[in-house]
Amino acid sequence: EVKLLESGGGLVQPGGSMRLSCAASGFTFTDFYMNWIRQPAGKAPEWLGFIRNKANGYTTEYNPSVKGRFTISRDNTQNMLYLQMNTLRAEDTATYYCASESVRAFAYWGQGTLVTVSS
Amino acid sequence: DVVMTQTPVSLPVSLGGQASISCRSSQSLVHSNGNTYLHWYLQKPGQSPQLLIYRVSNRFSGVPDRFSGSGSGTDFTLKISRVEPEDLGDYYCLQSTHFPRTFGGGTKLELK
Question: Looking at beta carbons, which residues of chain A come within 8 Å of B99?
């Protein structure tokens, strides 16, 4: 059974940094692209970026809306996905999800972790 | 960015009835490899989105055949027949043909 479990969310001040983690299990982690997606309360989801699989060199792609502030990485020895977020703004407040990808769709999602940017 | 426009925003339905949701894109979603990367999700209250339909018309694992997707180019439809209580929630389309990947604004399926 595929399981994705995000952690690391909480309250952070504007201008601060935060690192989110996603623990993956139940599938061969290195075979899959992994994505981060966020969803402000009551709004549609927004794709943030992904990191490719082993066959594609673990390269990354980002939404221009966060490029330069957010960095996606993975630890394939621990089956972990990370999202480093810097220079956080109030508009970054959202629930953050990790998701595995198959046929270019976000096939499996975690339960999400809430990030609140406020002073 | 490719803009995904979903209609209606709210869709009241009766249990056992049929629902139809439209998703239109600002550009063609046909990839250079010939595939069309348009997908549908359902987000039940308090839960993460779950994949229903991938690549226009393919049901994901475990999705009942009451759900069907169709369309091409820039115009796509999700149909739900014989609506059941567990079908209520927010539906989103997603395109992954172009970067950045973009979602529609959502359609809330609720009881009439």
Answer: 61
What would the two tokens of residue A14 be?
A: 């504007």
pLDDT tens-place string over residues A13-58: 999 999 999 999 999 999 999 999 999 999 999 999 999 999 999 9
Sequential DSSP letters for A10-66: EEE-TT--EEEEEEEESS-GGGS-EEEEEE-TTS--EEEEEE--GGGTT-EEE-TTT
CB burial of B9-46 (b: ≥16 within 10 Å; e: otherwise) equals: eebebeeeeebebbbbbeeebeeeeeebbbbbbbbeee
Q: Which of residues 26-85 of B touch A (CB under 8 A)?
A: 35, 37, 39, 41, 48-51, 54-55, 58, 60
Cβ <8 Å between B49 and A106: yes
Tens of pLDDT, residues A46-94: 999 999 999 999 999 999 999 999 999 999 999 999 999 999 999 999 9
What residues are paired with B24 via a beta bridge? B5, B75
**Does the beta-carbon distance from A106 to B103 stay under 8 Å?**
no
Give kind and range of the element (H or E) at residue A76: none
Q: CB of B101 within 8 Å of any CB in chain A?
A: yes
Q: Which amino acid appears at position A15 of this protein?
A: G
Instruction: Check CB contact under 8 Å for B100 and A106.
Output: no
pLDDT score for A103: 87
